[in-house]
Amino acid sequence: MASMKLTPSLVLLAAISAAAFGLSGCEKKTSVKEVAQDTATAAKDLASDVKDAAVSTWDTVKDYTFEKKSDFADAMDRMAAKTDAGVDSLAVKSEPARDKVIEEYKEARAALKAQLGNLREASADTWSATKDKTGEAWSAVQAAYEKVKASTTS
């Protein structure tokens, strides 16, 4: 029998499924407020998991050399996709303050995407500087993500 490789995406899917099952349990909720609080808690937990996975991945790839340029860029794409999923799960309810920080996230994400395009075109001579700029763009995405996450508690 072939063994199944557990990827972070599968683990995240399992966590979301378990949370959804737990929130839909047999016990009847007495108020909409309790359901909203349970949903907010699940979203915060998911956001924490996404951040932890993304940070550990950055620590893994930050020292990649030019020879691993393609692997680095692919990892950055996966990391960004994880934060995108986290923002999408937190952006359920539209409020002016949250809309503003989500827009800031989208701008930081667009800048990272552009920088990843530059990274994919980098030469051995420009690799180090381009990778540093990509790290700065990633830091901006992470900072914007933290603002979105914080907006769910206000």
Question: Would you write up a description of this structure?
Answer:
This protein has 154 residues and is mainly alpha-helical. It has a single domain (10-18, 27-151), classed as Up-down Bundle (Four Helix Bundle (Hemerythrin (Met), subunit A)), CATH 1.20.120. Helices cover 77% and strands 0% of the residues. It has five helices and no strands. The protein has helices spanning 8-23, 32-61, 69-90, 96-120, 127-151. Helix 1 (8-23) runs antiparallel to helix 2. The radius of gyration is 18 Å and the shape is elongated. The model is unreliable at 1-6 and 10-14 (pLDDT under 50).
Intertermini distance: 50 Å
Count of spatially separate domains: 1
Number of helices: 5
Number of strands: 0
Indicate the proportion of strand residues: under 5%
Percentage of residues in helical conformation:
over 70%
Instruction: From the alpha carbons, calculate the radius of gyration and give it in angstroms.
Output: 18 Å
Q: Whole-number average pLDDT?
A: 75
CATH third-tier fold name: Four Helix Bundle (Hemerythrin (Met), subunit A)
Query: Which structural class fits the helix and strand makeup?
Result: mainly alpha
- Uncertain segments of ≥5 residues (pLDDT<50)? 1-6, 10-14
Helices and strands, in order, run as HHHHH
Shape: elongated
CATH architecture: Up-down Bundle
Main beta-sheet strand count, sense and barrel state = none
CATH class membership: Mainly Alpha
